[in-house]
């Protein structure tokens, strides 16, 4: 399933504005950068106390991709890029007839995505690998900027963050990407380097301020109430005023 790439702002069937990824962050600080924020008092309220999960185990080189029903030890450090986790054709390309659906259980409810293997197969493969090793389990949304985006992952207790062991090239179309509310992406810098351990959820039209090469790889199928709860947990500075925590991520194939 490919996500259509266009330029500009468009209206959804319900009349809501959706954003197109056109450029990088402004310099005025009006939209938070893709990094863990500082924690001042914000919006007249008190920042939420966030608890980050401990680092997990270190995977042995060549660790296989777990199946959807496997329960490996939670792992957060890997020797290198993941092996193939997606069904492939004889020529090695991803099988377009197999869909992948990810269900993320959070303390605010569930979010369900259809993963875009046509546009971003490497991002999807990395996400499936990390999700099945429990990489994101226990991660709070540490950045929530209403109508912009929310971020989580890649930060553990006593750790300043970082890649799980590899980076990815951007798989974003050069013409830009429509970012409808709820779409899932990897944090990607202006140079097109994506961190598979740091994920972004688009919340509204200000997601247009994300860097042009941002790799979107998941379309929200279900979870509008959860998305609204995440919005209410944020602030204009991006510092959460209520904690929303990822409890579990499950990815299943649907031929």
Please sum up the structure shown.
This protein is mostly beta strands and 255 residues long. The chain has helices at residues 121-132, 224-232; strands at residues 10-11, 17-20, 57-58, 75-77, 99-106, 109-115, 141-145, 149-152, 168-169, 178-179, 184-188, 193-202, 215-222, 246-254.
Describe this protein's structure.
The chain is mainly beta and 255 residues long. It has a domain at 45-61 and 98-254: Cyclophilin. The chain is 8% helix and 28% strand. The protein has helices spanning 121-132, 224-232, and strands spanning 10-11, 17-20, 57-58, 75-77, 99-106, 109-115, 141-145, 149-152, 168-169, 178-179, 184-188, 193-202, 215-222, 246-254. The strands form three sheets. Strands 5, 6, 7, 8, 9, 11, 12, 13 and 14 form a nine-stranded antiparallel β-sheet that branches. A three-stranded antiparallel β-sheet has the order 1-2-10, with no helix packed on it. The longest helix has 12 residues, at 121-132. It is globular, with a radius of gyration of 17 Å. The two termini are 13 Å apart.
Labels describing this entry:
single chain, 255 residues, mainly beta, Cyclophilin, nine-stranded antiparallel sheet, three-stranded antiparallel sheet, 14 strands, 8% helix, globular, disordered N terminus
């Amino acid at each position: 399933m490919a996500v259509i790439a266009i330029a500009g702002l468009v209206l959804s069937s319900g009349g809501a504005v959706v954003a197109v990824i056109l450029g990088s962050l402004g310099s005025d600080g009006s939209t938070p950068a893709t990094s863990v924020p500082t924690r001042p008092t914000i919006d007249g309220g008190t920042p939420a106390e966030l608890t980050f999960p401990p680092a997990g185990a270190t995977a042995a080189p060549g660790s296989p991709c777990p199946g959807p029903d496997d329960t490996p030890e939670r792992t957060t450090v890997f020797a290198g890029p993941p092996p193939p986790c997606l069904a492939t054709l004889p020529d090695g390309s991803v099988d377009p007839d197999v869909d992948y659906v990810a269900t993320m259980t959070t303390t605010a409810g569930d979010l369900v995505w259809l993963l875009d293997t046509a546009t971003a197969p490497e991002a999807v493969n990395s996400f499936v690998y990390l999700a099945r090793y429990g990489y994101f389990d226990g991660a709070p949304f540490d950045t929530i900027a209403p109508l912009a985006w929310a971020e989580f992952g890649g930060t553990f207790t006593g750790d300043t963050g970082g890649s799980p062991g590899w980076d990815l090239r951007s798989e974003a179309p050069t013409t830009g990407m429509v970012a409808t509310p709820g779409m899932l992406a990897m944090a990607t810098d202006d140079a097109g380097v994506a961190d598979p351990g740091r994920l972004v959820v688009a919340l509204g039209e200000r997601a247009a301020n994300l860097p042009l090469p941002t790799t979107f790889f998941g379309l929200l199928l279900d979870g509008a109430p959860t998305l609204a709860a995440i919005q209410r947990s944020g602030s204009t500075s991006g510092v959460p005023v209520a904690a929303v925590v990822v409890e579990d991520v499950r990815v299943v194939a649907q031929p």
